[in-house]
Design goal:
mainly alpha
Length: about 150
C-alpha cells in the first residue's frame, strides 16, 4: 500500500466519523453535581434517608415483636377457654394464633434483613471510599514521581 493510498483511507475514515462523538466523557451536570431524577434518571439517596429507613425497620422489628406477642397470648388463652367449653371455634382460633406466629416471624425477619442490609451497605460504602481514596492518592504519588523525573 502506497503512502498516498494510506492517507486517502485515513481521510475517508475521518470523514465518516460523527463530529459529535466523544470518548471517555460524561457531560457536565448543569445542577452542580445534584442531578435531578428527570434530568439524569439517577437515584439519589442521602445517608440521612438510609438511616431513617433502617431505624424505621428496626423500630418495627422491636415494636411488632412485642405487641404481636400480646395478640398471640390473648388468642391462645381465648382458644383454650373456648375449647374447654366445647366450642369448635376454639380449635379454629388456636389454628389462627399458630399461623399468626409464622406471619409475625416472616415480617420480623424481613425488617431485620432491611435493617442489617442498610447497615452493611453503609459500612461497605465507607470501606469502598477508603479504598478508592487510597488508590487515588497512590496515583497522585506516582504522578509526582513522574513529574520529578521529567524535571517539572
Amino acid at each position: 500500500m502506497a503512502w498516498d493510498e494510506w492517507e486517502q483511507l485515513k481521510a475517508e475514515a475521518a470523514s465518516k466519523q460523527s463530529a459529535h462523538m466523544q470518548l471517555n466523557h460524561v457531560p457536565a451536570d448543569p445542577n452542580g453535581g445534584m442531578g435531578t431524577k428527570d434530568a439524569w434518571g439517577d437515584l439519589i439517596v442521602s445517608q440521612k434517608d438510609l438511616s431513617a429507613i433502617g431505624k424505621a425497620a428496626h423500630d418495627l422489628f422491636e415494636d411488632f415483636g412485642r405487641y404481636s406477642d400480646h395478640a398471640r397470648v390473648s388468642s391462645l388463652a381465648a382458644a383454650g377457654m373456648l375449647q374447654s367449653e366445647g366450642f369448635a371455634l376454639g380449635g379454629a382460633l388456636s389454628h389462627v394464633a399458630e399461623r399468626w406466629v409464622d406471619q409475625v416471624q416472616s415480617l420480623m425477619d424481613a425488617c431485620a434483613h432491611i435493617s442489617n442490609h442498610l447497615r452493611y451497605t453503609k459500612n461497605q460504602h465507607a470501606a469502598d471510599e477508603t479504598y478508592i481514596s487510597t488508590i487515588l492518592s497512590s496515583i497522585s504519588t506516582l504522578d509526582e514521581g513522574f513529574d520529578e523525573r521529567k524535571g517539572g
